[in-house]
């Protein structure tokens, strides 16, 4: 029986610049972006986000979540957890966005640097690789990712910024590459787990 769940990618950032950037990046990879999730903090509830995801005409659907730097379990994390645990949603991956925070952080599958290079391990807010031995990407709203069943977590620097390296006017190259990595990995998993595998 085919899986009818909607495929979703979550980006852990939500400010206005990030929103414009993710919109461009989602368009670049053929994904649908729910602009109403843009906000700092996330302006709508998890239930409202799921309703909007279900109305999107095609997959994958890209949403944003943001805590506005709030420590602990904030609005962005509430929305993220609600969406990730919803029975009608399959989160195929997340972009963990680095920021200056005291959060514990999350281990990433890989990261996209400000120059578009894929590296093992985390990057910092500017999209530069962290020094060797640094295991966790620290960022707003990323701690909860490790508690959820998300198959791919790609790290990036600050969405749309990184000293203009990810500027939406330049085509949002870093965020586009991170989204494409998640989609490619998901497509490969689907083929490997298909009816003839």
What's the total number of strands? 7
Largest sheet entry: 7 strands, mixed
Oligomer: single chain
- The percent of residues in helical segments reads 25-40%
N/C terminus separation: 15 Å
Q: What spatial order of strands do you see in the largest sheet?
A: 2-3-1-4-7-5-6
Shape: globular
Total of DSSP H or I helical runs spanning 4+ residues: 4
Strand content: 15-25%
| Secondary-structure element series | EHEHEHEEEEH
Kindly describe this structure.
- The chain is of the alpha/beta class.
- The chain has one domain.
- 27% of the residues lie in helices and 15% in strands.
- It contains four helices and seven strands, in the order βαβαβαββββα.
- It has helices at residues 16-28, 46-55, 75-84, 173-192; strands at 6-11, 32-33, 61-64, 89-97, 110-112, 118-119, 153-156.
- A seven-stranded mixed β-sheet has the order 2-3-1-4-7-5-6, with helices on both faces.
- The longest helix has 20 residues, at 173-192.
- It is globular.
- The mean pLDDT is 93.
Notable features of this structure?
single chain, 15% strand, seven-stranded mixed β-sheet, 7 strands, 4 helices, alpha/beta, 197 residues
Quick overview:
By secondary structure, this protein is of the alpha/beta class. It has 4 helices and 7 strands. Helix 2 (46-55) links the parallel strand 2 (32-33) and strand 3.
SSE inventory with pairings:
Blueprint: E1 6-11, H1 16-28, E2 32-33, H2 46-55, E3 61-64, H3 75-84, E4 89-97, E5 110-112, E6 118-119, E7 153-156, H4 173-192
Parallel strand pairs: 1-3, 1-4, 2-3, 4-7, 5-7
Antiparallel strand pairs: 5-6
Helix pairs in contact: 1-4, 2-3
